[in-house]
Amino acid sequence: FQELRIPKPDYNLGVGSGSHAWQTAEIMKRLEPVILEEKPDLVIVVGDVNSTLAGALVAAKSHFPVAHIEAGLRSFNLSMPEEINRRLTDHISDFLFVTEPSGIKNLLNEGIPKSRIFYVGNIMIDTLLKHKEAILNRAILKRLGLNEKEYGILTLHRSENVDDEKTLRRIISAVQEIQKMIKVVWLIHPRTKKMIEHFNFTNLINTLDNLIILPPVGYVEMLNLMASSKFVMTDSGGIQEETTVLGVPCLTLREVTERPITEDIGTNIVVGTKKRKIVSEVKNILAGQFKKGKIPKLWDGKTAKRILGILDKKLGMLRNNLK
Predict the structure, then answer these.
(1) Of 63, 157, 189, 198, which is the active-site residue?
(2) φ, ψ for residue 253, nearest 5 deg
(3) Is there a contact between 268 and 247 (Cβ–Cβ < 8 Å)?
């Protein structure tokens, strides 16, 4: 909030962590009175987290229009909670703002009317481009004793990677090999740290001399670290998009991605979680044999303006129809 100069919210639901069912239900319980009191012209939900689905459900059941930003993304893997959130949210939304062409295709295939779908670009890239000066700031590199393009980054948080002992062991084994070739900075998620301790991997990680373990950092510092890195290994959806715009090679430690444009024309490769494939692609990067990639259409920092233009034009018509 401080770094991005986001104003203090008028309401904070204060839900916190919990199981998917508990968290989604609690958000709905606390959000409903706010929406009924405020009577908004529109409820905007973003992304694919539990609050996205909860917000859309409360609004739709209270008969308020819903706009979903980042609509249409699909991994086609229903074991991922984000996939369930995405699909359900899209089908109860009135405005579907899409980041890439695959989103349009997915929504049309699911029977959603074309009139609800709008290709506007990627709103996360608006934020990235607004903070371009962070890319030039090398303060965190100096503090950590890092040199530009002489380290790789690792982030890991998804349950299918960190909650499964065999999968987490394979990834750590790959890191063990990679850090012999180049320094690796692991920004460790609290969930991941907990599972490393649970599976007794702490001692193994502590033996890796060329591995730097850091707690999560703020957005601006993360942007700086990514832009200055040789490559990024991650299971994050957003980082796949950010590295494509930054021109930094990205290895996605998952079997599928819901953001295929980052692999089709960007700097991303989905490598899975097998040690051999991860290490092989890192060697390609270090040898200068990695694709360059290009920035997708409409990822230009003007997505928010396009969304506001559409809403300004369409919302009056929608309000009249609701009457």
Answers:
(1) 157
(2) -90, 60
(3) no
Residues of the chain under the 70 pLDDT cut: 317-323
The DSSP 8-state label assigned to residue 6 in this structure reads P
CB-based contacts of 288, cutoff 8 Å, min separation 6 = none
One-letter amino acid for residue 292 of the chain: K
By CB atoms closer than 10 A (0-12, 13-18, 19+), residue 131 is middle
Token readout for 243 is: 């590295």
pLDDT at 135: 81
> 91 an active-site residue?
no
* d(C-alpha 281, C-alpha 277), whole Å: 6
**Main-chain dihedrals φ then ψ at residue 96, nearest 5 degrees:** -120, 105
What is the C-alpha to C-alpha distance for residues 115 and 308, in angstroms, rounded to an integer?
17
> pLDDT (tens digit, 9 = 90+) per residue, 21-50?
999 999 999 999 999 999 999 999 999 999
Closest-CA residue to 243 (of 227, 260, 230): 227
Q: What is the CA radius of gyration of the chain?
A: 21
What's the residue count for the chain?
Answer: 323
Parallel, antiparallel, or unpaired: how do β-strands 117-119 and 95-98 relate? parallel
Q: Which two tokens stand for residue 261?
A: 């444009």
